[in-house]
Design a protein that fits this description.
The chain has 309 residues and is an alpha/beta fold. It is built from eleven helices and ten strands. It is globular and about 65 Å long. The two termini are 40 Å apart.
């Protein structure tokens, strides 16, 4: 079962440059959350701060009753065992085959026998669809397969929190679709808490339970998927629709008058009121009970929007 992460008043700087400030949100246990934002807004920095690789200037990150920003290195090491991380490039060792790459955390951090390691590695490879590729080197496989191998390695210690740093980077749309389905299926199977940093709007519309958006050193919004997808907040609507009109500029330097003029020119009379359908777990995978409650909540919100349109 995943665990809740409670972030309060988090601020991170590098020297005099503030990356983001006063970020507060709660990542619900067992749910999938996505963090969006223009390039350079510190999304990856946020992931590294959550896992304790970077220390914030202010604020707290509470996991299982402990504020990890105040933990000593030994205690922080113990908390990190709750995490699995999928890095952008998979972070695989080029000289090791996939089996040894995925087995590496088990050999490094546990005293399990090789027979037990083999059972776990093959189980995780099966979960991500890589059975039969054990002997291949990372350089011999596609980018999509490398992502799945990195995900299998992130799973071998049975983490309760999994962080995904732009898992769709470098993949074509078809591979992104397969990866999104894999993420939804895995969450339904292992019920861990997922946080995904991505630029991919289609993924953000289909995959998560919750969405957040970082912009101009602040967390603009964080909440249930349906609320963000139907939000009237200009920066949220601009980003989710991928258009130039709005607060986000090429260098994020638009003044208020320019933004107001651009927004006035947008014709939202044909704005689609239907929520993008959520990806569901594949055949044979049981949906978690919370999905029923989320589906009801989204249906109620949709009815209110239609009634008010």
């Amino acid at each position: 079962m995943g665990v809740e992460i409670c972030v309060e008043g988090l601020t991170k700087s590098f020297g005099h440059q503030v990356i983001w400030q006063d970020v507060s949100l709660t990542l619900p246990a067992g749910e999938v959350s996505v963090m969006l934002g223009p390039s350079g807004t510190g999304k990856s920095v946020f992931l590294k701060t959550l896992v304790g690789l970077l220390k914030p200037e202010r604020g707290s990150i509470t996991i299982q009753g402990r504020d990890i920003t105040k933990l000593r290195e030994h205690d922080l090491y113990e908390v990190r065992k709750l995490f699995g991380v999928l890095f952008q490039d998979g972070a695989l060792f080029g000289s090791m085959n996939l089996y040894d790459n995925i087995a590496f955390p088990l050999r490094e951090h546990t005293r399990k026998s090789e027979s037990e390691i083999r059972r776990i590695v093959l189980e995780k490879m099966d979960m991500v669809g890589l059975i039969g590729a054990e002997g291949k080197l990372p350089g011999e496989i596609s980018g999509g397969m490398r992502k799945r191998a990195g995900l299998a390695r992130a799973l071998v210690l049975d983490p309760e929190i999994i962080l995904f740093d732009e898992p769709d980077s470098g993949l074509d749309p078809v591979r992104v679709a397969y990866l999104n389905q894999l993420i939804v299926d895995l969450n339904a199977q292992i019920d861990a808490t997922f946080l995904i940093v991505t630029h991919d709007i289609a993924s953000a519309r289909q995959v998560p339970d919750n969405i957040g958006l970082l912009f101009r050193r602040e967390l603009v919004m964080f909440g249930p998927r349906a609320e963000l997808l139907s939000s009237d907040e200009p920066v949220v609507r601009q980003f989710l629709n991928g258009r130039m009109q709005g607060p986000i500029g090429m260098a994020e330097e638009k003044d208020a008058a320019q933004v107001e003029q651009e927004l006035a020119q947008i014709d939202d009379s044909a704005r689609v009121q239907q929520l993008t359908p959520r990806l569901l777990p594949g055949p044979g995978i049981t949906r978690p009970p919370r999905w029923q409650a989320i589906a009801r909540r989204e249906a109620e919100l949709h009815q209110k929007e239609v009634a008010g349109a």
